[in-house]
């Protein structure tokens, strides 16, 4: 099994950033309970696009979590703040980690 990075970019709906940040613990807590979860980083680019990098033990676990997240916490304020059409999810095998 190869450690995997899940790289997600997205935009927020107008006027939702404060609620997104304040209620993001729901997402962190949910991720922490998922099989294969190793860590998460969340940042905002200068152009306003958000970037989330999640480390997983393997791609299968990452994809399984992605398939379930909306059904399990999709109604949370943090998830509802995300503009669905802007979401881009990609996976990359870790080649180097220090």
Write the topology of this structure:
Blueprint: E1 4-10, H1 17-22, H2 25-32, E2 37-44, E3 50-56, H3 59-73, H4 77-80, E4 88-93
Antiparallel strand pairs: 1-3, 1-4, 2-3
Strand order of the largest sheet: 2-3-1-4
Helix percent reads: 25-40%
Structural class call reads alpha+beta
Question: How would a crystallographer describe the biggest sheet?
Answer: 4 strands, antiparallel
Count of structural domains? 1
3D shape: globular
State the low-pLDDT regions, or none: none
How far apart lie the N and C ends?
18 Å
CATH topology: Alpha-Beta Plaits
Please write the CATH class name: Alpha Beta
Short description:
With 98 residues, the protein is an alpha+beta fold. It contains four helices and four strands, in the order E-H-H-E-E-H-H-E.
